[in-house]
Amino acid sequence: MAAPSKRQMLRFISQFGAFILTRFGFWNCFSMLMLFAERADVKRKPDIQVPLLYVDMAAAVLCASFMSFGVKRRWFALAAAIQLAFSTYASYVGGHVHYGDWLKVRMYSRAMAVIGAFLVLASGAGEVYRQKPRTRSLQSTGQVFLGIYLICLVYSLQHSQEDRSAYLDHIPGGEITLQLLVILFGVLALSFLSGYYVRLASQILAVLLPLIILFIDGNLGYWHRTRRVEFWNQMKLIGHNIAIFGAVLILGTDG
């Protein structure tokens, strides 16, 4: 049996990234429901008022369903980006739950990155049989959002003791390695923002993100017990990073 060619391998990776990204809405809704159930036990309100919350979740599931089946994927990816932007804005201005500044940066920067990921998908990137030309403006906008996410990550690693401690506990070399990571994330951010070497930057980020998800985000004991992040809120944030990973797989193979 012949080994798969490089082109087939890249196509498979791109399809895998699209598979992850198109299913994000299901996980996000599930984790939100579990989060609000967790809050109900301690009589805390959800981020969004209940009638609006159900409409928001229905829209997210609808978009995820159509994207998963490949029906008008570009249109529903764009709709998913708009839905997530609206949901994030409603959560921010609602003011029902008060988060620490460091947690706000983590939450809203990742939401912005996932919005950018959906814009990349809406541009036509990652399509196996592309029948229409790619919309470069949507892809460029999505890349800018991913770059902003990386800038926020750099900011957190410099100014958030919570994030710094999470990394310092798991990386060898201590502060020196952390500063090298800051420089690397900064360079990757410039690449996404400028539009130069995006494929290479995405490939590097595709290597780093699984390690971050596994060792940093996956350290539930640290985030939940030590930093008092709600368990299902942290699980939702993990889902955000997995969706971002799906986007960089697409950009790293079909950027």
Automatic annotation (TrEMBL):
Pfam families: TMEM101 (PF15111). Keywords: Membrane, Transmembrane, Transmembrane helix. GO terms for biological process: positive regulation of canonical NF-kappaB signal transduction. InterPro entries: TMEM101. It comes from the Eukaryota. The chain crosses the membrane at residues 12-36, 48-69, 75-95, 107-126, 138-157, 178-198, 204-223, 235-253. PANTHER family: TRANSMEMBRANE PROTEIN 101. This is Transmembrane protein 101.
